[in-house]
Amino acid sequence: MAYGNDTDYFRHRVAQEQEHARVAPNGAIRRLHLDFAERYERRVAETERRLDITAPSLRA
Question: Sign of torsion, CA 41 10 33 24?
Fold first, then answer.
């Protein structure tokens, strides 16, 4: 799958990790995937802030 920018990629990873957490066999693995999803959510926010600062017209 091709991504237009980092934000698209990180959003995709958030959704993937949330799905992995949903089907995880136990609580520890579920928590791990939820932690990954949270990290990717922070990356989405950072990327959006960076785009707002550098080139607002580039936002998708």
Answer: positive
The pTM of the full predicted model, rounded to 2 decimals, is 0.79
Is there a domain that residue 13 lies in? yes
Percent of the chain predicted with pLDDT > 90: 67
Domain membership flag for residue 58: no
Considering the domain boundaries, does residue 59 fall inside one?
no
- Count of structural domains, the chain: 1
The answer to whether position 47 is within a domain reads yes
DSSP string, the chain: ---SSHHHHHHHHHHHHHHHHHT-SSHHHHHHHHHHHHHHHHHHHHHHHHHHHH-GGG--
pLDDT in tens, 35-58: 999 999 999 999 888 877 766 565
